[in-house]
Design brief:
The complex is a heterotrimer of chains A (259), B (287) and C (335). Chain B is an all-alpha fold and 287 residues long. Chain B has helices spanning 2-32, 39-55, 61-82, 92-114, 138-160, 162-171, 184-206, 216-231, 236-256, 262-276, and strands at 128-131, 134-137. In chain B, strand 1 and strand 2 (134-137) form a beta hairpin. Chain B is globular. By secondary structure, chain C is mainly α. Helices cover 77% and strands 0% of the residues of chain C. The chains are: A alpha/beta (259), B mainly alpha (287), C mainly alpha (335). Chain A binds chain B through residues 12-13, 52, and chain B through 284-287.
């Protein structure tokens, strides 16, 4: 298996934010994590990317046990990620923001910086190339020199994708990638995610926009109160009693029905 | 043995002063989410106001203290309304730097107004009494008793009134239903008023056994930081426990280890604690 | 941003002015002042690395400055080492002290870090103040030698000391420039921007912060050592927390997290204080509120605000270009 979690649990104080969740993901697929607010989705991502240590359970990625790895090592192994609100450097240009994404594949240190060594120059060049490739992938070449403060909300979302892609990931975790953008733009972002998967990058996303997920995801995992209540293909999830129950019981609106 | 009791008594005296300062600091932490570096300057101003009232206007010690509490409480409110309120939501660094700016100003102001001389503050309670076989000055006894009374008053205010409960909730960084319907701005300025008042009271009580000078607040405030980290940021019992503990440690350490290095104790203690536990003692939950 | 050409011209003019100054205006008082400005600036550049670029407010900076100063003072007067060896060792000792403090202090975050470093600063102060037999306590350390001869070059005149300070400042600025414009510098800024994000793009926070903190201590130590051999006398007061606050103020006025900020701020604040002599003792009556006002309204200081102004202009240009682009596209679509 390309990626899997085995019964992972996270407790904050006495409360379990994520409880005994096992998920398997195959390479090059799109997996959506859904669930009502407070279901533990973001915590689940934080566990995978190593930001929070696990209370118990195991995480495997490409036959490596990454359970106890620090975030930077997990990133180096090939798991990229975006946040709900990406903290971009507003004063810098789009390109400068993405450039740092490739830092983990470079080795230049203080001496390279001071003497501007060949390695520094080469790695800088490589970082630029990588950043441009990533920006090209997300179709943002027309704004590379713009300061981030000037680009639109949707472009910021794309920029976040590009930053994750610049790390050369084999899998990306996208936390609500389409939150706060209009339906047209949502289609564009969905297309990008499909494009990533087609390029062999495994995609995991947290999302509330059901229509998009239903048409996009290969696999859906439903969390509620930190527990996995269902998983399967979109059409299976749509008919799942427990899921309908969770949404009807937990939230005022029932996104599954909308579809 | 008598020496030890004497030092315990002295430790309680110093501890009372530390506690009053640390209590204000810990409450204000809930509003700013960073430690208020200007708090030591409030302490200094409090001492000078009391001194000025006594020497300049010939007021009685107690009246001078009350006036000083009022002035410094007002000073607290003014800094909160004029500066910190505008920085709401700014990053911690800007808050801390703003507090440092206030500190620098107040210190220079103290120097400008009252010079750099060291003043002695006379007290009507200079006499010596015999307490369970210990000879102690009445002023020291007064510090201990007054501190306890102030803490009890604070306790009643914080537990018996709605706004008091809100202040406690803010200090402990508790959010949610509890704070609904509470005027956050009112909580903020009231907290600053209480903190300022406590600092002024502490300084006025301590001055007769120490001296009054422009930088008198520096060491006290830095020790108060140590106390609230030991006791847990925002924790009231923690501040009280930490304050007395530090007072006792210093007093006993000065006698039995080295009086030269007694001031180092607090800071070494903190370094050791943060080394072992980078998030401080008594931090609740994770993030 | 100023465009590259005018920026370079400006830089050359400033550098030329600094070099020619003693020849054109051989005023002892002004030279003395400028030398001090250069020396302090070096420390402020160090401060800028950890607090400006990485975003951690350190309050131990005067402590490191003092370690450098006392390091040089003790090595020359008590151990009898040569000046240049002492300078090297003093800087080395300060860097090691910085690394050791950093290893532990950097495990703490935000205000805990500020308080931790503050305590470190106070401990340094108290040690210098109380350890009479080594440091001379409150009496201070006297008779620190001026920089020793370097072959034919001697440093017994004020002018030569001026050039020495200028040399080290230029060296410092050059290093900072190289660091800021490298992958490493970008890494520092990424950490300041968001630690969480930096972690998930594979940046090792601790390693980079420790490097930045050690570098900041290194420059503080260099500055302290130069200060000791320029003033020839040092006392415990140089390690007081107020000195840290003073450096913070220079940084803030000049522009925190900018390359020109440290020298601009130090120059302006020190010369302002000196020219308003009556202010000397009460200068904080003015600078205290200045710090507060800067934090409230100009958090990026003088240099940062100027940069911001040029950036805004550029943004407007981009905006206009964008709109034109949009219009063209719409016209194209319509057609």
């Amino acid at each position: 298996m390309f990626f899997s979690t085995e019964g992972i649990t996270k407790r904050f104080g006495g409360l379990a934010a994520v409880e005994d969740v096992s998920v398997s993901v195959e390479k090059g697929t799109i997996t959506a994590i859904i669930g009502p607010n407070g279901a533990g989705k973001s915590t689940f991502f934080n566990l995978i990317s190593g930001i929070h240590p696990l209370s118990s359970g195991k995480i495997l990625f490409k036959d490596h046990d990454i359970t106890k790895m620090p975030p930077q090592q997990i990133a180096r192994l090939g798991i990229g990620r975006t946040f709900q609100t990406t903290n971009l450097f507003e004063q810098s240009t789009v390109l400068d923001n993405v450039l740092i994404g490739h830092r983990l594949r470079t080795k230049s240190g203080i001496w390279d910086a001071i003497f501007r060594t060949k390695r520094e120059k080469e790695e800088e060049k490589r970082s630029y190339q990588k950043a441009l490739e990533a920006l090209e992938f997300v179709e943002m070449m027309h704004v590379v020199e713009h300061p981030v403060s000037l680009i639109s909300q949707e472009e910021k979302k794309r920029l976040a994708f590009a930053l994750a892609l610049a790390t050369d990931p084999e899998m990306v975790l996208l936390d609500e990638p389409a939150a706060g953008v209009n339906p047209d733009e949502t289609d564009g972002l969905a297309y990008l995610m499909r494009k990533m998967a087609d390029h062999g990058i495994t995609v995991c996303l947290i999302e509330h926009k059901m229509p998009m997920i239903m048409s996009l995801a290969d696999q859906i995992v439903v969390l509620n109160h930190g527990k996995k209540i269902a998983e399967g293909r979109p059409e299976e999830i749509r008919q799942n009693e427990a899921v309908i129950q969770a949404y009807l019981g937990g939230e005022a609106h029932a996104p599954v029905k909308q579809y | 043995m008598e020496l030890l009791f004497q030092q315990i008594f002295n430790g309680l005296t110093i501890g009372s002063v530390y506690t009053l300062v640390a209590l204000g600091l810990t409450l204000v932490f809930g509003i700013l989410h960073v430690p208020n570096f200007a708090h030591g300057a409030f302490y200094m101003v409090g001492a000078y106001i009391t001194l000025m009232m006594m020497v300049g206007f010939g007021f009685h010690y107690w009246i001078a203290i009350i006036a000083s509490i009022a002035v410094v409480a007002l000073l607290g409110v003014v800094t909160q309304q004029l500066i910190f309120k505008k920085l709401e939501g700014a990053d911690g660094m800007r808050m801390m730097v703003a507090a440092i700016g206030i500190l620098l100003f107040l210190e220079a102001f103290g120097q400008f107004m009252w010079g750099t001389e060291y003043y002695r503050m006379d007290t009507p309670y200079g006499s010596v009494v015999n307490l369970f076989g210990l000879t102690v000055t009445l002023q020291r006894l007064l510090i201990i008793v007054a501190a306890v009374i102030l803490m009890l008053a604070l306790h009643f205010f914080l537990t018996k009134t709605m706004i008091g409960a809100a202040i406690v909730a803010m200090a402990q960084n508790r959010e949610g239903a509890f704070l609904v319907g509470i005027n956050a701005n009112q909580v903020a300025w009231l907290t600053f008023a209480i903190a300022g008042g406590l600092a002024a009271a502490a300084a006025s009580l301590a001055s007769p056994i120490n001296l009054v000078f422009p930088t008198m607040g520096n060491l006290v405030i830095m020790k108060a930081f140590v106390i609230i980290i030991i006791g847990g940021m925002g924790s009231i019992p923690g501040a009280i426990l930490g304050g007395y503990l530090l007072g006792l440690t210093e007093s006993i350490g000065a006698t039995y280890i080295s009086s030269d290095y007694k001031d180092v104790i607090a800071f070494l203690l903190l370094v050791v604690i943060l080394t072992a536990k980078p998030t401080g003692l008594f931090t609740k939950g994770v993030q | 941003m100023l465009n590259v050409l005018s920026k370079r011209v400006l830089l050359i003019i400033v550098a030329l002015a600094a070099v020619l100054f003693p020849l054109v205006f051989p005023n002892m008082y002004v030279l003395q002042l400028l030398t001090l400005v250069f020396i302090w600036s070096i420390a402020v550049y160090g401060y800028n690395i950890i607090s400006g670029y990485v975003g951690y407010l350190s309050l131990a900076h005067a402590g490191f400055f003092a370690i450098g100063a006392y390091g040089l003072g003790l090595l020359t007067t008590k151990a009898g080492f040569s000046y240049w060896l002492s300078l090297l060792l003093a800087v080395l000792i300060t860097s090691i002290a910085g690394a050791l403090v950093g290893v532990i202090a950097l495990r703490t975050k935000s205000h805990f870090f500020a308080i931790y470093t503050m305590c470190v600063g106070v401990i340094v102060y108290l040690l210098i103040d109380k350890w009479d037999s080594l440091t001379g306590g409150v009496r201070g350390l006297i008779g620190i030698p001026a920089p020793g001869n370097l072959g034919p070059i001697t440093f017994d005149t004020l002018t030569s000391q001026y050039y020495l300070a200028l040399f080290f400042l230029t060296f410092t600025i050059f290093l900072c420039y190289r660091i800021v414009h490298s992958l490493l510098g970008r890494t520092f800024i990424a950490i300041r921007n968001s630690e969480e994000l930096a972690k998930t793009i594979g940046i090792s926070i601790m390693k980079n912060q420790l490097l930045a903190f050690t570098l900041s201590a290194l420059f503080a130590g260099l500055s302290g050592a130069l200060y000791a051999s320029f003033i020839r006398f040092i006392g415990p007061q140089i390690s007081a927390i107020t000195v840290t606050f003073e450096m913070l103020m220079y940084l803030l006025v000049g522009g925190i997290g900018t390359l020109a900020g440290p020298i601009v701020g130090t120059l302006i604040v020190i010369s302002l204080t000196q020219s308003l002599q009556f202010l000397e003792e009460y200068r904080m009556l003015i600078f205290g509120p200045v710090v507060v006002l800067l934090v409230l309204y100009y958090p990026r200081g003088i240099t940062g605000s100027i940069n911001g102004y040029f950036q805004k202009k550029k943004q407007q240009r981009v905006k206009v270009a964008n709109e034109e682009h949009d219009v063209k596209r719409k016209v194209g679509e319509a057609g």
